[in-house]
Design brief:
The chain is an all-alpha fold. Helices cover 73% and strands 3% of the residues. Helix 2 packs antiparallel against helix 3 and helix 6 (134-158) packs across helix 9.
Length: 279
Amino acid sequence: MLRQRVITALIMLAVLVAALWSASPTPFFALALAMMAAAAWEWARLNGTQGAGALVVGAFMLAACALTWRAGWATEPFAGWWLVTALWVVLGGLMIAAGVPGWSRLPASLRLALGLPALWAAWLAVVQSRVVGVNYLMSVLSLVAAADIAAYFAGRAFGGRLVARRLAPSISPNKSWEGVFGGMAGVLLLAALWIGFDRLVALADWSRSLYSICCSPAAWPGWCWPRWRWPRSAWWATLVESLAAAPPAPRTRASCCPATAACWTASTRNCPPCPSPWR
């Protein structure tokens, strides 16, 4: 399974790089659309919908994103981003507070229905970020990766030594507060390096990164929330993703295709750090 996942990751990375290097955003839009359809298929399977039913859910997501693209939303400002972010924070907080027992008690159809709008919003956020520029898009996607890597090593090195209480034992027993602090430090370090890159290396016609936009004095007051929100949005998304994947039996999740599992994980984790890119 590990070998299969590594091969899948390398193939997906090659396709992603090719789409990003295109002068037109259209190849990336299409790639993101296919990934969201695969993520919806995966989400349906995680909630007990198998076979043709899961394919229908994937096709529905494909159609929803395609219609959004055709309507021009992918390249136009979307006024509802702050409402989407607020709903994510509120609903995510309620999910974490309820834990695995509360989330599992919800009907599978309701869990499925709650996840599909989140996937659609993730697609729209990602493609709009691509419209702003590759530099901006990569700064958003790198946030979660940096937080995960830093949290993993901090948790391995210091987990349970500074704070005895685990982060969310009912959701993910191995996650520690030391991992959270390490992840936040990793994101802040990434932000500092990327801001330096924007100022010293990036070309004049490149887009600014998420971090440069958030830390720009001209961004107040509309960007004041992301200033403190993005260092912790990654671990928040990780907890929600872990909780959302908790109801199915391990055998059900392991049987899912690594490529679609990767699409679903990337979608759920990368949506929260995507505040409105339009400045």
